[in-house]
Design goal:
With 358 residues, the protein is α+β, with helices and mostly antiparallel strands. The protein folds into two domains: 40 residues; 237 residues, no CATH class. It is 33% helix and 25% strand. The protein is built from seven helices and 19 strands. The strands form four sheets. The protein has a seven-stranded antiparallel β-sheet with strand order 1-2-14-13-15-11-12, with helices on one face. A five-stranded antiparallel β-sheet has the order 3-19-5-16-17, with helices on one face.
Length: 358
């Protein structure tokens, strides 16, 4: 009997314990429901806050775009934006989306470089040194850019060559090798209507070995030419005038950066920010090639014409001109491409190039 009572007491004790244990479990359930409601409210609040922030940012963006493009509050930066966009083949929409043709033309006219003077070849005296001087290549850096300067002492070794083949141009490294040269840079521009980059379709006046390869003999072009003696000749000529001026080979490009020792660039926004290729010459005939890398954030964005002019001033150029830049800008020396081209594929196919013979 005692055992039965004890067992019953034990059972009652266990049941009581279970009831006590169950009771606390009910309370958290109520709290959990409350927490879930709070979480739902918090989530809705967060979503609402996110939408509010998004709407505010969109409105601020619209206001900024209006102030940037439709007022003169940011005139300097607007000029730089337009000049950069409009001097590309594929990204002009960055300007045309926001500005009319008239507005763009007005900005570009303000930034236009006027070259009203031809270079004087008589001021260049080719100095022939008995001691052979080697080509040197120097890395340069500036605000937002990395570049390379090649100094070529022997002007007689510098030539403009045609590199067009049946259906394509040729990469600079191959052009240099095929012409038994040691160095080279890209030269004239070309059209690339389908984006295939074959580099064999000329779009600007080109003279090589006194033969007009592209252009109208009666039209006047801004030419960057080389004479038989190795002088850099800059000027606006018809084909026959160019031949009379002693030009053997030339490409139409520009603008001219320095003419007869006179700086041509005055506005820091001229040309926008791009990879560059340019050529210059000292009064003693020494050639200066300048390659500026660009369109590579974190490494080099590129530079404008004014900064390019400063580089040529530093290296004592008497005449200097801008060549085809962008993704075409390539410098080659002693078996390798010196600079870092702006396209992942590396060298482009080119219609012509300026080489330095061995």
């Amino acid at each position: 009997m005692t055992n039965v009572i004890l067992n019953n007491e034990y059972k009652l004790h266990e049941e009581k314990k279970n009831i006590e244990n169950k009771e606390p479990n009910r309370r958290p359930n109520k709290k959990t429901k409350r927490n879930k409601r709070k979480k739902k409210k918090t989530l809705k609040q967060k979503m609402f806050l996110f939408l509010k922030i998004l709407i505010v940012l969109i409105l601020l963006g619209i206001i900024f775009i209006y102030l940037f493009f439709k007022t003169n509050l940011f005139k300097k930066y607007k000029q730089l934006w337009v000049a950069t966009a409009m001097s590309t083949m594929n990204h002009q929409y960055l300007a045309t989306w926001f500005l009319s043709k008239e507005e763009i033309d007005e900005i570009l006219k303000e930034l236009e470089v006027e070259n009203n003077e031809d270079s004087n070849s008589d001021a260049i005296t080719i100095v022939l040194n008995k001691e052979k001087k080697d080509i040197t290549v120097e890395k340069i850096t500036g605000k937002n850019y990395v570049g390379y300067v090649m100094i070529v002492p022997d002007a007689s070794k510098v030539k403009l060559v045609d590199s067009r083949k049946n259906n394509s141009g040729t990469k600079l490294s191959q052009i240099v090798k095929e012409n038994n040269a040691i160095a080279g840079i890209n030269a004239g521009g070309f059209t690339d209507p389908e984006g295939t980059g074959m580099g064999n379709q000329l779009c600007k006046a080109t003279i090589i070995n006194k033969k007009l390869q592209y252009g109208n003999k009666n039209a006047t072009y801004s030419l960057i030419g080389l004479s038989k003696e190795g002088k850099l000749v800059l000027g606006k000529y018809t084909y026959q005038q160019a031949i009379n001026a002693g030009i053997e080979s030339a490409v139409e490009f520009g603008p001219y950066i320095i003419v007869n020792g006179k700086n041509q660039i005055t506005n820091s926004n001229s040309g926008g920010i791009h990879p560059r290729m340019a050529i210059g010459q000292r009064k003693d005939g020494t050639f200066i090639f300048v390659a500026i890398d660009g369109r590579q954030p974190g490494y080099s964005l590129g530079t404008n014409f004014l900064e390019l002019q400063k580089i040529f001033n530093k290296y004592d150029a008497y005449n200097a001109a801008n060549l085809d830049g962008g993704s075409s800008a390539t410098m080659y020396y002693n078996g390798k491409v010196v600079n870092k081209t702006s396209t992942p594929i590396g060298e482009r196919y080119l219609p012509n190039a300026i080489i330095v013979e061995k």
